[in-house]
């Protein structure tokens, strides 16, 4: 008689803000299913529903549903306070509707949240273990914003208190290096300090890309990465357009969004590129100070030039941590032309950052670490 082992499903609630959670969870899923082949992930997201297919797996179970968190931006990348205020005003009602639907989940072993506070309430109601993965929490993030309307400030603070209570329903919260100290202190009893999570096991892609980039005969090769919502696109496009021809011995690799730029020293990357595949093949990355980009640059020992996003608490915190620790260089694109900045950077500071990165002893097995901790907790 053949004993049939019942598949064990677990659900991942993905934030719709940025690609970081999707890339992280790809690696965590891989590590979990290597330990237990009977584990079956279900991913829930709205904005990145189609992206699951090409980033993780076209056959993976997925649900198109918004997981409530919204961060609205103006064209210049600054916070759209009117839209954010509206989000907070409607939040409690949306949360109740979400809870009512989500507690219908059946046959789950556990839940991962990256990072939806409400997911922890669902898990608590269903009696399931719930694991958070984050480098910041949304109560910390939105606490840095200030509204002029006193009534809406009161509503926002009520939601932040609700999130704090929700997050305390987590079994464990896995956080990487450079997580804000306020978060470490607030959730001390839940926090598990974790190595960096990076995109691994893509040597074939690295080799193909490296061969292509090696054929390009330029003094320096530079990868430019914007956020998934392209908040820095206009400014980056402007500085590239005015500077690329002046520093013709520099080769720039840019996302598809920049395809209107025509120059021999601008290479447009294929659509749906995994940018981390290019990081080990270039001399430096210029990018928004998102945590996944930073993690990948440190993993590949590729120096990073950091660009801030106006009014974004996460990027400000990331820039502060890297600059203070001599792990990244800040660039204000409004104050210095790219064709003036880059020659100075390569002449004076690039080798300094490269040497520090080569000698740092960070760990990058975060996905495996989290997977092992989750399995032991079940």
Structure description:
- With 378 residues, this protein is an alpha/beta fold.
- The protein folds into 2 domains: 8-196 and 364-377, Rossmann fold, CATH 3.40.50.2000; 203-359, 3-Layer(aba) Sandwich (Rossmann fold).
- It has 14 helices and 13 strands.
- The protein has helices at residues 20-35, 49-55, 81-102, 117-126, 138-142, 150-167, 181-186, 203-214, 233-243, 291-299, 313-324, 338-348, 350-359, 366-377, and strands at 8-14, 39-45, 61-64, 108-114, 130-133, 172-175, 191-193, 220-225, 250-254, 266-268, 284-288, 304-307, 329-330.
- The protein has a 7-stranded parallel sheet, with helices on both faces.
- Helix 1 (20-35) packs across helix 14 (366-377).
- The protein is globular and about 60 Å long.
- The model has no long low-confidence stretch (mean pLDDT 90).
By CATH, the superfamily of the largest domain comes out as Glycogen Phosphorylase B
Strand line-up of the largest beta sheet: 3-2-1-4-5-6-7
Provide the CATH topology of the largest domain: Rossmann fold
The quaternary state of the protein chains shown equals single chain
**Beta-strand proportion:** 15-25%
First-last Cα distance: 28 Å
- Mean pLDDT across every amino acid position: 90
* Rg, Å, rounded: 21 Å
Number of strands: 13
Q: Domains counted in the coordinates: how many?
A: 2
Helix proportion = 40-55%
N-to-C SSE string, H for helix and E for strand:
EHEHEHEHEHHEHEHEHEEEHEHEHHH
Q: Report the CATH C-level class of the largest domain.
A: Alpha Beta
Helical stretch tally: 14
Based on the coordinates given, report the CATH architecture of the largest domain.
3-Layer(aba) Sandwich
Shape: globular
User: How would a textbook summarize the main sheet?
Assistant: 7 strands, parallel
Structural class: alpha/beta
- Unreliable residue stretches: none
């Amino acid at each position: 008689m053949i004993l049939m082992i019942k598949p064990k499903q677990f659900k991942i609630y993905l934030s719709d803000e940025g690609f970081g959670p999707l890339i992280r969870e790809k690696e965590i899923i891989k590590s979990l299913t290597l330990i237990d082949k009977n584990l079956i992930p279900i991913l829930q997201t709205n904005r990145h529903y189609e992206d699951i297919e090409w980033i993780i797996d076209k056959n993976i179970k997925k649900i198109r549903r918004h997981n409530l968190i919204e961060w609205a931006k103006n064209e210049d990348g600054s916070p759209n306070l009117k839209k954010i205020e509206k989000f907070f005003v409607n939040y409690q009602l949306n949360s109740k509707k979400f809870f009512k639907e989500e507690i219908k989940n059946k046959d789950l072993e556990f839940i991962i949240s990256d990072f939806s506070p409400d997911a922890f309430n669902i898990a608590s109601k269903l009696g399931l273990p719930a694991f958070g993965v984050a480098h910041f929490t949304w109560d910390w993030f939105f606490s840095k914003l200030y509204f002029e309307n006193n009534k809406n400030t009161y509503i926002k603070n009520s939601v932040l208190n609700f999130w704090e209570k929700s997050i305390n329903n987590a079994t464990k919260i896995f956080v990487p290096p450079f997580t804000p100290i306020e978060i470490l202190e607030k959730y001390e009893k839940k926090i598990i300090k974790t190595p960096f999570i990076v995109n691994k096991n893509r040597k074939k892609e690295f080799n193909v890309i490296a061969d292509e980039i090696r054929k390009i005969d330029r003094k320096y090769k530079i990868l430019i990465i914007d956020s998934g919502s392209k908040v820095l696109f206009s400014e980056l496009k402007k500085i590239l357009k005015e500077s690329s021809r002046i520093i013709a011995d520099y080769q720039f690799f840019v996302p598809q969004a920049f395809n209107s730029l025509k120059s021999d020293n601008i290479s447009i990357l294929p659509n749906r590129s995994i940018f981390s595949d290019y990081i080990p093949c270039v001399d430096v990355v210029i990018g928004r100070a998102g945590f996944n980009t930073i993690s990948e640059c440190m993993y590949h020992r590729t120096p990073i030039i950091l660009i801030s996003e106006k009014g974004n608490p996460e990027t400000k915190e990331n820039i502060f941590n890297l600059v203070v620790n001599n792990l990244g260089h800040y660039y204000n694109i409004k104050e210095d032309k790219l064709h003036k900045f880059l020659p100075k950077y390569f002449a004076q500071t690039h080798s300094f950052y490269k040497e520090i990165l080569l000698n740092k002893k960070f760990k990058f097995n975060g996905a495996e670490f989290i997977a092992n901790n989750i399995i032991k907790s079940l």
